[in-house]
Amino acid sequence: MNEKKSGARSKQTLQTLQTRRIQIPRKISFTPKQASLDLEWVHGNAEETSFPEASFDLVTASLLFHETPPIAAKSILRECYRLLIPGGEVLILDGNQKTLRQVDWLSDIFEEPYIKNYAVGSVDAWMGAAGFEAVQTEDWWWVHQITKGIKPIAARDSAALVYQTSASARFENLGAEGTPVPVF
Ligand SMILES: C[S@@+](CC[C@H](N)C(=O)[O-])C[C@H]1O[C@@H](n2cnc3c(N)ncnc32)[C@H](O)[C@@H]1O
């Protein structure tokens, strides 16, 4: 789910509701050990985690919101906000809501009970309602979108600086710095 805020080598925590067993997806072509990642796997509801307030500087969710009712997605975003330090970043990868609205058969093939509710919603708006600033969504190919937002910090002038040096900007240096990848 996120990157903890302090320490030379920070930790990644991954939380899911998956009930059978927590598995590393086959698409990951390296093991956490090979990548020198310090991973902690947690089973639980992302709407209400047991992690302390302001304990992460990055929270991500991948392909989660099209599976939840919008009310749960909004509640997860509020939990992301609570978990982040001021200036911390949330990153949400999921189905492209614009495309899903335009192409009905695409929603139908996934057979997810809430996908049409997800499609008519707006992750941008949900993020804004949770209190995030600098919210923006970009298309990722045709079927996906990535939405990011920043938890505001008190000093208004430093917001732009934080945005530039934010976690997603460091995302490309994952291997080099051992920067943790958080996932819901
Ligand atoms: C489509 S899978 C995506 C899995 C993984 N994040 C990925 O990108 O491959 C959606 C996952 O979200 C989990 N999930 C659904 N609702 C959840 C919730 N409220 N809290 C935590 N996990 C949840 C499901 O158990 C499922 O494992």
**Global structural class:** alpha/beta
CATH class of the domain at 56-169 equals Alpha Beta
Which percent range fits the helix content? 25-40%
- The named CATH superfamily of the domain at 56-169: Vaccinia Virus protein VP39
H and E order: EEEEHEHHHHEEHHH
Distance between the termini: 5 Å
Give the amount of beta strand, in percent: 25-35%
Outline the low-pLDDT stretches.
170-181
User: Taking all residues together, what is the mean pLDDT?
Assistant: 81
Explained architecture:
It is a single chain. The protein is α/β, with parallel strands linked by helices and 184 residues long. It has a domain at 56-169: Vaccinia Virus protein VP39 (Rossmann fold, 3-Layer(aba) Sandwich). The protein is 29% helix and 26% strand. The protein contains eight helices and seven strands. The protein has helices at residues 70-83, 97-102, 104-110, 115-119, 123-130, 159-164, 167-170, 174-177, and strands at residues 2-4, 12-16, 39-43, 56-62, 84-95, 133-140, 144-150. Strands 3-2-1-4-5-7-6 form a seven-stranded mixed sheet. α1 (70-83) crosses α5 (123-130). The protein is globular. Bound molecules: S-adenosylmethionine (SAM).
Keywords summarizing the entry:
alpha/beta; 29% helix; globular; 7-stranded mixed sheet; binds S-adenosylmethionine; 26% strand; Rossmann fold; 184 residues
Task: Give me the secondary-structure topology.
Blueprint: E1 2-4, E2 12-16, E3 39-43, E4 56-62, H1 70-83, E5 84-95, H2 97-102, H3 104-110, H4 115-119, H5 123-130, E6 133-140, E7 144-150, H6 159-164, H7 167-170, H8 174-177
Parallel strand pairs: 2-3, 4-5
Antiparallel strand pairs: 1-2, 1-4, 5-7, 6-7
The structure holds S-adenosylmethionine.
